[in-house]
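Hi support team,

I've been running sequence recovery on a batch of backbones for a student project. Most finish fine, but this one hangs at about 90% for roughly twenty minutes before it completes. I'm not sure whether the input is malformed or the queue is just slow. I've pasted the structure tokens below so you can try to reproduce it. Let me know if you need the job ID as well.

Thanks,
M.K.
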């Protein structure tokens, strides 16, 4: 990644020709073909420049939140960091979108606005029919000592028989096999069905990761419930109230059913013994 300054803005680019994006974007002369995503976190658009299509991403939440702006003094803006992350993924032999250009506007040393332009991958979101190549890609990431960071099914793009990863944090796996096991559990949850035959489950690592998954589901629902109370929301139907109250019992039952847990643990151990033989 190269760095420079244009019109008092910090720019980052893969090669000098990529600075061609600056003026059309600043002057709003880019052609927007489609809005791929637009919410409080980010805006992602498909744009066209000189007959070619690209992805134009604005990290809205990171650009506007005061705490994120303050942190940008020390670690840089979101667009710059994502540019570096994509480069790191590619250098490790994993397929992802190639970054071309990023730009940051700073005030008092803080990034207050930024955007990233990257390659458009003409493909589709992964689905259960592609789970084998998706699991192989996740295994490849883990074999290099990294984790995806958000391994849900929609963050794998299938194009021309290749699997590309998107929205990846791609960080070193400080929790080792526990983190790797959890990534497969998270992927499995997003699939809505079992995918255990497509990846290796490593005994205690998988069991602990599964318990962590139960806890996170439980805590997420508790937070949502508390937030609804703080907002003063009322339940329209008695069924809604019952479903909220039953959250605690449902999650608790996953930990108190000792027989089921022992059976689950023994199944994993038997699988590992069969693999070793």
């Amino acid at each position: 990644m190269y760095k420079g300054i244009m019109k008092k803005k910090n720019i980052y680019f893969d090669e000098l020709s990529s600075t061609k994006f600056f003026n059309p974007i600043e002057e709003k002369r880019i052609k927007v073909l489609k809005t791929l995503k637009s919410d409080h976190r980010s805006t992602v658009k498909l744009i066209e420049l000189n007959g070619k299509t690209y992805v134009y991403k604005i990290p809205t939440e990171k650009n506007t939140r005061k705490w994120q702006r303050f942190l940008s003094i020390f670690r840089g803006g979101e667009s710059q960091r994502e540019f570096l992350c994509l480069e790191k993924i590619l250098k490790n032999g994993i397929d992802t979108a190639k970054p071309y250009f990023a730009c940051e506007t700073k005030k008092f040393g803080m990034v207050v606005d930024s955007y990233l332009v990257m390659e458009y991958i003409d493909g589709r979101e992964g689905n259960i029919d592609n789970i084998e190549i998706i699991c192989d890609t996740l295994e490849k990431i883990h074999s290099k000592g990294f984790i995806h960071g958000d391994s849900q099914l929609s963050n794998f793009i299938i194009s021309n028989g290749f699997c590309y990863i998107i929205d990846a944090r791609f960080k070193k796996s400080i929790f080792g096999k526990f983190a790797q096991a959890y990534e497969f559990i998270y992927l499995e949850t997003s699939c809505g069905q079992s995918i255990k035959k497509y990846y290796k489950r490593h005994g205690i690592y998988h069991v602990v990761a599964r318990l962590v998954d139960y806890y996170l589901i439980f805590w997420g629902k508790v937070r949502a419930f508390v937030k609804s109370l703080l907002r003063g929301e009322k339940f329209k139907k008695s069924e809604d109230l019952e479903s909220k109250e039953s959250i605690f019992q449902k999650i608790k039952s996953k930990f108190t059913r000792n027989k089921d847990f022992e059976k689950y643990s023994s199944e994993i151990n038997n699988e590992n013994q069969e693999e070793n033989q």
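--
Follow-up from support: It reproduced on our side and the slowdown came from queue contention, not your input. The chain has two domains: 2-119, 124-276. No action needed from you.
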